[in-house]
Amino acid sequence: MAMPMESSPPLFDVDESQAALFHALAEPTRLTLLQHLSTGEHRVRDLVDHLHLAQSTVSKHLACLRDCGLIRSRSEGRASWFSLSDPEQLRSLLAMAATMLSGAGAAPTIHEHLHDPRVGGGPADDDFPSDEDRSS
Q1: Does the pLDDT value for residue 21 go beyond 50?
Q2: Is the Cβ–Cβ distance between 62 and 99 less than 8 Å?
Q3: Are the CB atoms for 86 and 72 separated by under 8 Å?
Q4: In whole angstroms, how large is the CA radius of gyration of the chain?
Q5: Does 49 score more than 80 pLDDT?
Q6: Are the C-beta atoms of 71 and 31 separated by less than 8 Å?
Q7: Per the confidence metrics, is the pTM higher than 0.90?
Q8: What domains sit in the chain, N to C, each tagged with a CATH number?
Q9: What is the pLDDT of residue 107?
Q10: φ/ψ of residue 90, rounded to 5
Q11: ∠ CA(31), CA(70), CA(30), 5° rounding?
């Protein structure tokens, strides 16, 4: 007869705001926007020109980042200027993420993650013969 295992209380609490934050950080375009904003305050027009994306796309990503508290905006005439809310805390958060990934021996690219069947993606790349294998 198996004995029930005792469980410990969780080491941390989670809530919806944390899920929203990690959702915001999970999108490569939003990370690129954050990186660009780390150089200083920018207008939407500047970000559109730099990223070569539609204004509606940039605005949608900026709204997500603002809703999570990662960036702030201010109006000047008809222009909206965006900047990081707390550059040092964001830098620290991203540094911790890099440390966690390297400490776990993991640093998957998005392509690898999306195509890894272990995480619900398609077949892993090594399941298919490479171009060299097919030509021989």
Answers
A1: yes
A2: no
A3: no
A4: 21
A5: yes
A6: no
A7: no
A8: 26-88 (1.10.10.10)
A9: 57
A10: -65, -45
A11: 20
